[in-house]
Please model this.
Amino acid sequence: MNTWVEGSVLPVQSYRITRADLLAYAAASGDHNPIHSDDEIARAVGLPGVIAHGMYTLALAARAAEAWAGGSGRVRSLGAKFTRPVVVPAGDDGVEVVVTGLVRSVADGLTTVALEVTCAGEKVLGGATAVLA
Amino acid sequence: MPVDPALVGRSFGPTALVEVTEDRVAAFAAVTGTPYLAGDAAPVTFPIVVAFEAMTALMTDGTVGIELHNVIHGEQRFAYERPLYAGTQIAATLVVDSVRSIAGADIIATTSAVTDATGALVCTAKATLVHRADQS
Model:
């Protein structure tokens, strides 16, 4: 049992991601769009460079939600808008994605959390919410 | 070419049943750094594997008028009926909920029902696809 109430601030989760992670995500998810691996193609469609799959960023938000919920199978719902691309530079340093959570409500054993997901200080997901059991 | 609003209500799929194996779930979890031990539920976003196939069926259907390279994934939400465990077979059936045209882009809202081999609902995966008019 947790002691969350409306307004509780959940422990910040931060995850460093690299281009190697994007290649691994492409293989695991089946999404092989080259904007997630090839700078030239990414620039050709108007992006600053290789970006993370929106679904990879959402998977990191889900990882944070599972960590807060204290185990697998407890996230009843999760979703967000992809509002800003996460640009991932080449090299081992990659970028850091930071996930914060604010409890919006606790009712009937369900906790509704508003997530904020940022990269380099900019919000990358919009309206990100999760319901935890 | 704008997408025909008559698309609303059309369904795509079901996709072929995919076996959710321990290996596949463990690989997906590892990539996102999500802790996973055999017997745990699959990571929350795992059903995108079949939902993405259903979206691809929509986006590549020649009668729909979508140009794949002009599509951006705008929004994605999952709502679970029950946790998903390895050993389950899943498939997705997508229904187009709405088509709106805003500033030269088609906003296509979809809901994919992710079901098991008996047809029971595991989760719904709602996706919004943004189809931009060709820049050329």
Summary: The first helix of chain B runs from residue 22 to 31. Chain B touches chain A at residues 24, 27-28, 30-36, 40-45, 48-49, 52-53, 69, 72-80, 83, 126, 128 (CB under 8 Å). The beta strands of chain B are 11-12, 18-19, 71-80, 89-102, 105-116, 121-132.
